[in-house]
Amino acid sequence: MTKYRFRFAGATALALALAAPVTLSPMLASPAHALFGFGDIVYDPTNHAENLLTAARTLEQINNQIQSLQNEAQMLINQARNLASLPHSSLQQLQRNVQQTQQLLAQAQNIAFDVQQVDRMFQQDYANLDLSATDSQLVADARSRWENTVGGLQDAMRVQAGVVGNIDTNRAEMSELVGQSQGATGALQATQAGNQLLALQSQQLSDLVAVMSANGRSEALIEAERAAAAEQGRIQRERFLTPGAGYQPGNARMFTGGN
User: Fold this and answer.
1) How far lies 119's CA from each of 103, 129, 183, in Å?
2) Residue 113 burial (10 A CB sphere; 0-12, 13-18, 19+)
3) 118: Cβ–Cβ under 8 A, 6 or more apart, which residues?
4) Alpha-carbon distance 10 to 66, whole Å?
């Protein structure tokens, strides 16, 4: 019986000795993946680090998306600015200036700025002088041509006065448009301001054309009157020198009642 107990004790000791390395090996080793237990909570450092890295990457993606949305919003704001219309328009004022100049040209005296009327009036008063007209008729025709010349000069001066009157208005509009162009918030506003400046220049050019036309008309009337006067003088000179029908000498008494 004692021998049996000794063998059982020896077997038990041998079993414990063989099992000891297996039980102690986790405690003696130093693995990269270690777990730490705190009651029922198990802390895994490697898993925690991976979770932090995933969270950082997710946060970076969110920041990139926010930045992208901000860029898109800024792009839409810029597009809205580029499509914004200019709040100031000079069209009505420029049209009024042009209309005033046109009205002055339309009020031309005797001979209007009309091709058919010019042809008719020149054919009547300047081109063909009637050789059989009486002296009184010749004088009346000469006076009519003189009135045309004076009227043309007056018309030219009226057009000049109207154009000069537009200078102040054009100056104010030019200053306003330049200010609008410099303060434009987008491409459309800058383009519209530039177009209105071009329209202002076109209106000024039309005023210049009107002045040149009125001046040219007055100068043409002066030259036409001179030409007609020269022709009328030739006719009257021929009448004066024609025997029988021209000048007839006679006796003239300058004083009456004397001896």
Assistant:
1) 22, 15, 53
2) middle
3) 111, 112
4) 74
Give the C-alpha separation, 246 to 165, whole Å. Answer: 55
* Higher pLDDT pick, 3 / 242: 242
Three-class secondary structure assignment of the chain: CHHHHHHHHHHHHHHHHHHHHHHHHHHHCCCCCCCEEECCEEECHHHHHHHHHHHHHHHHHHHHHHHHHHHHHHHHHHHHHHHCCCCCCCHHHHHHHHHHHHHHHHCCCCCCCCHHHHHHHHHHHHHCCCCCCCHHHHHHHHHHHHHHHHHHHHHHHHHHHHHHHHHHHHHHHHHHHHHHHHCCCCHHHHHHHHHHHHHHHHHHHHHHHHHHHHHHHHHHHHHHHHHHHHHHHHHHHHHHHCCCCCCCCCCCCCCCCCC
- Return d(Cα 45, Cα 37) in angstroms, integer: 12
Tokens of 171: 């100056």
Q: What is the pTM of this model?
A: 0.63
Residues 198-209 pLDDT 10s? 999 999 999 999
CB 86 within 8 Å of CB 183: no
**Segment 143-161, tens digit of pLDDT:** 999 999 999 999 999 999 9
Nearest to 148, CA basis, from 112, 107, 110, 104: 110
